[in-house]
Amino acid sequence: MDVEALVRPVVEGAGLELVEATFNRGLLRVVVDREGGLDLDTVADTSEKLSRRLDLEDFGTGRYTLEVSSPGVERHLRDPRDFITRVGERVKVKAKVPEEGGLTLTGTIVSADEDAVTIATDREERRVSYPLIRSARTVFEWGGQPKPGVRRSKSKSGSKR
Length: 161
Description:
GMP Synthetase, Chain A, domain 3; SH3 type barrels; three-stranded mixed β-sheet; 20% helix; 35% strand; disordered C terminus
């Protein structure tokens, strides 16, 4: 049974992007996203709609668990489309480079096409073809520095008066 074909119409009908759908060892994992991110109500509604669809289609031969989630703040990049839509974002790419062995790049995607991605690091720009990429994900950068003039106090033991 093609799990992706079963869940895609429900996900897209809810105005979401299907990132991934896998079924392994009784766990049906559906990862969804949309521009601007997801909220908990959207995930819950989508889970309920998927559950009804799966019941109607008599999915699975036994018990299974349905898990619907967002890809998170550090999203895995799997195919050229993922890289193309994230030009300008920070990423971490682990690649196998025949002449150098392993290679890890952390930087910004400056361009991507159907064959390769170009990443600008602090030192250089590097073009890596997709077959050489072992893993890739976006990199979330936590908030900035404290406001000027604001000092963070260290707590001391004892009572405050």
